[in-house]
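TASK: fixed-backbone design
INPUT:
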């Protein structure tokens, strides 16, 4: 058996949606996203062992959303937070579905996302590249609405 190249998932085929204050919006201006669910581990020293084993003691979620610099939504919300102290949370849904792949579709929802920082303003007169910004965030819950099919190879 071999992995078929047609089963590899193209990242360009993804779709992403954000829900803030009950409003759902497609993130068509997104460039990339990576989110990580990381275990928090603690040392468990055991008498008679030379190593220090660890066990899981919770988890944390974080990520970075890179978007083209074409929306004021996040800046408006961060300015409101700076002026009032009222924070905001959002859900971020990512659908990976490449029609060429027999893997099918995977849908992940990152819940209770909260931005860490934002570029408040920028320009670069020396570059031919389009302006973009990285939005680091944390999340406190996650769901998998759809999962990839098991691929069998050829």
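OUTPUT:
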């Amino acid at each position: 058996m071999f992995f078929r190249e047609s089963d590899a998932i193209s990242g360009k085929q993804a779709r992403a949606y954000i829900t803030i204050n009950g409003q759902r919006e497609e993130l068509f201006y997104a460039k990339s996203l990576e989110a990580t669910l990381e275990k928090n581990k603690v040392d468990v020293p055991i008498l008679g062992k030379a190593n220090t084993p660890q066990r899981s003691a919770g988890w944390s979620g974080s990520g970075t959303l890179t978007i083209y610099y074409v929306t004021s939504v996040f800046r408006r919300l961060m300015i409101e937070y700076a002026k009032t102290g009222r924070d905001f949370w959002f859900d971020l849904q990512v659908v990976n579905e490449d029609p060429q792949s027999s893997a099918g579709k995977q849908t992940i929802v990152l819940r209770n996302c909260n931005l860490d920082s934002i570029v408040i303003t920028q320009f670069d007169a020396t570059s031919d590249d389009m302006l973009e910004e990285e939005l680091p965030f944390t999340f406190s819950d996650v769901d998998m609405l759809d999962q990839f099919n098991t691929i069998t190879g050829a």
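COMMENT: The mean pLDDT is 95.
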